[in-house]
From TrEMBL:
<protein>
    <recommendedName>
        <fullName>CCR4-NOT transcription complex subunit 1 domain-containing protein</fullName>
    </recommendedName>
</protein>
<dbReference type="GO" id="GO:0000932">
    <property type="term" value="C:P-body"/>
</dbReference>
<dbReference type="Pfam" id="PF12842">
    <property type="entry name" value="DUF3819"/>
</dbReference>
<dbReference type="InterPro" id="IPR040398">
    <property type="entry name" value="Not1"/>
</dbReference>
<dbReference type="GO" id="GO:0000288">
    <property type="term" value="P:nuclear-transcribed mRNA catabolic process, deadenylation-dependent decay"/>
</dbReference>
<dbReference type="GO" id="GO:0030015">
    <property type="term" value="C:CCR4-NOT core complex"/>
</dbReference>
<feature type="domain" description="CCR4-NOT transcription complex subunit 1">
    <location>
        <begin position="75"/>
        <end position="217"/>
    </location>
</feature>
<dbReference type="GO" id="GO:0060090">
    <property type="term" value="F:molecular adaptor activity"/>
</dbReference>
<dbReference type="GO" id="GO:0017148">
    <property type="term" value="P:negative regulation of translation"/>
</dbReference>
<dbReference type="InterPro" id="IPR024557">
    <property type="entry name" value="CNOT1_dom_4"/>
</dbReference>
Amino acid sequence: ALAAQQQQAAQAAAAQTLGGAATASLGTLGNSALSGQQAAPLDPALLAGQEQTVIPNLASYVVINSGLQLFTQQPQLKRIVPIAIDRAIREIISPVVERSVTISCVTTRELMLKDFAMEPDEQRMRKAAQLMVQNLAGSLALVTCKEPLRVACGNHMRSLMQQAAIDPQLLEQVTQVCSSDNLELGCTLIEKAATEKAVRDIEEALAPAFAIRRKHREQTGLPYYDMSIFTSGRYPASLPEALRPKPGGLQPAQRRVYEDFGRIPRTAAMVQQQQAQQ
């Protein structure tokens, strides 16, 4: 169990190391020809190690158990694993990220406009929005993608390896083990893509709110308060006292609700590590 946790933590760190280059590639994959389709046929270039993953350097971080009987007999088939993982991620990432980011941005925007209506500092508002939307989008993506990614990894691996006339039992063993071993890596990459897109989208969604605070301060020298929330009818007058916006912005205890989003473990591996330490 400890070894599995260490492997998951290492893969989470690897996904962070892949960084912006990986998520930049992932960000354009919604239009990929592979999205929603089965893997392309096996070709000699793949077995020769000439086919590259779309996600940069993914093969360096994919876990391949060399002790599996199939890989002992036919080590060249190990080259299929990163290609299958790459295609599986590309197949599911677009709908997962889109759904997670949409829900997170709508939720964050509405809460920001209410809770920070009396907050004149747009930077404080921006920081709270980023913390909240990152955590919501990442958590939603992580929960949403795990099972579809496991299935997609298995499907792509089977589709590629079946063409090599492999014993069905050995094929199933490799498919199950490799899919499980690399699930955390794929989930973390998808989570990272979701959090980065969410930050960009919430910045755009709240741009008018940020701009009006800055402009009002520069033109009048006075703090800006959004009084429209009291007249628009969007929020009931029966809101509990603790939830009503007040001049001067949020109190420290209320701001801590948003600050705490930055303290929540962001990946499944981190959650499992934390639970193991308790």
